[in-house]
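Exercise 4. Each item below gives a protein and its sequence. For each, produce the structure-token representation.

Item: Fe2OG dioxygenase domain-containing protein (Phyllobacterium leguminum).
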Amino acid sequence: MNSAIAPFHEPASAVAQKRISRYDWVSLGADLDQHGSTAIEKLLTPEECRAIAALYPHEEHFRSHVHMARHGFGKGEYRYFKYPLPDIIAGLRTALYPRLAPIANRWNERLNDDTRYPAQHADFLKACHEAGQLRPTPLLLQYVPGDFNCLHQDLYGDLAFPLQVAILLSEPGRDFTGGEFVLTEQRPRMQSRAEVVPLRQGDAVIFAVHNRPVAGTRGDYRVNMRHGVSRLRSGIRHTVGIIFHDAK
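Answer:
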């Protein structure tokens, strides 16, 4: 166990399972169906948030370092964790997936997509690895004044789980200003709709990676989702992203 970020008296996986089980997943699922996103309050403690953010300068935890401006992604930077993941991040990834897989399968059924996701994350990762998607995708993002993240979708190969999670590690108003999490939704023959998701330190947002179904007068139809972060005005902002598929 990495005691720097999981100082628990029991395994981080057990801690994550207990935390996940205390939330109302029927209500969270209904929010996802209606809006394409939902927030989970206080998923991490302030101490855990600070400990995870403190990993950022230590390259031994990461497989790559991306400067957004070099690739036209925006302005800011992030690092992809390498395997083995930090205990608490691995635990949350494993614990969240079984709650989200039924929602993902329901969405695909509504969209007439034959893809179905297994009940456990280990089985989904096995499918990713068999498809040549071997690199871990959880990441730690850092923004300083003037930084922003362009609207995008986190697709890394043929296999992509349709939901992902971002956890805010910094406290708005104290650690930074600006830097709001933004979602946009493009419906057929309509203008894009934008939504800002307010988060506090330790809060998580679950959101659609790519597409989601919306009920229309003639049945369900597919809408295209993107997400990003608005310009940071002051301070420093850290976020951890939990993506359930691995990358090529």
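Check: The two ends are 27 Å apart (CA to CA).
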